[in-house]
Structures are given as C-alpha cells and as structure tokens.
From TrEMBL:
Keywords: Membrane, Transmembrane, Transmembrane helix. The keyword Transmembrane helix applies. It comes from Lentihominibacter faecis. It comes from the Bacteria. The chain crosses the membrane at residues 5-24, 30-47. This is Uncharacterized protein.
Amino acid sequence: AAIIAWVLAFIFPLLTYFGVQGSFWTFINSINYVWSFVIGFVVYILLMKTSLAGNSSVTEEEHEAFTERA
C-alpha cells in the first residue's frame, strides 16, 4: 500500500510535464509538495482501510501483541 501511494504521489504532480493541459493541472503543479503529500496520504489511508492492499492490514491479535506492556 505504501509503495502504491508513493508512486501515485510522485506521478500526479508530473502530469503537466507530460503534456496535460488545463488550469487545474497548472494549479496542481504550483503546489507540488503539498499535492504529493495529500495524494500519497489519501491513497495510503484508502488502501489500508479496504481490502485492495491485500493482507497489509494489522489484525486485532497483531495489534495486541504490538501494544503489550512488558
């Protein structure tokens, strides 16, 4: 999920360099770092909340093991 989010966050701001035209893409190109962070964060959250990422979510047992106090 993190790799997919990173790739999308990297590719979307570069669309203007690939010839995509329009005022929306010009605006997106002007805020590259913010846009990249937002896209990467949203895609990562969506992938982790759904089953699209496969078995990348943490089960309840794994969560309990992580947060177990010594």
